[in-house]
């Protein structure tokens, strides 16, 4: 039987090799190797300042970086954020990045910027997003800035889905949210990965992420210090040894 949690057990869609990035003299990411394949949700864990957000920014080409990011087997050379997004690698950033003075519908429409005036495709994608988050359908004309934090996070994920991603990256979608709505959103991410979409989830709340993930990468001081099979984590105290090592 193949061990589905082992890196490489599934053909990687996103394959990150030796990725490094720095802010001035701060070496925030030091040679990260990780991958995510079809149907895999991988968790990126670690304490504050471990380099998790930097990893996502470097994959997207939002900050200068060294190393290689391969997408569907080909190297994403000279990565620029727009080019990476056009390929289908889509980031839901920390803080959500939605436009508060625009309606829910307008935010969703922006996510589908690549399809131009193709109304049929727009409708198809909206229908999918409403299946994932029925609440958004009820709030289409509401200014998104007036929605609750949980609803705004649903919109951020919904808008990313409007781009029809081939890989979805999320930076702490649970930040500041109540446990119930966090559960709802993470469950939806589980559904998306089960439908085949590779999902890379940066998450501080390790126990929640480990419930969904097939594999977790634990970061500390810019490095991956452990690759974890969530089924082997007997208690969450076990993880603490890495957090406080
Ligand atoms: N714009 C920046 N300028 C300088 N240093 C930065 C910048 N952004 C991050 N850093 C530093 O890089 C390191 C990694 O930060 P990063 O935000 O990637 O960590 P993180 O694991 O995502 O933490 P958190 O969970 O708190 O968001 C930290 O030491 C941080 O202080």
What does this structure look like?
- It is a single chain.
- The protein is α/β, with parallel strands linked by helices.
- The protein folds into two domains: 12-88 and 165-243, P-loop containing nucleotide triphosphate hydrolases (Rossmann fold, 3-Layer(aba) Sandwich), CATH 3.40.50; 98-164, no CATH class.
- 36% of the residues lie in helices and 25% in strands.
- The protein has nine helices and ten strands.
- The protein has helices at 52-60, 81-87, 104-111, 119-132, 134-138, 149-162, 179-194, 206-212, 236-243, and strands at residues 12-23, 26-37, 41-45, 66-71, 74-75, 89-92, 167-171, 199-202, 215-220, 223-228.
- The strands form two sheets. It has a six-stranded mixed β-sheet, sandwiched between helices. The protein has a four-stranded antiparallel β-sheet with strand order 2-1-4-5, covered by helices on one side.
- A hairpin with a 2-residue loop joins strand 9 (215-220) and strand 10 (223-228).
- The longest helix is centred in the last third of the chain and has 16 residues, at 179-194.
- It is globular.
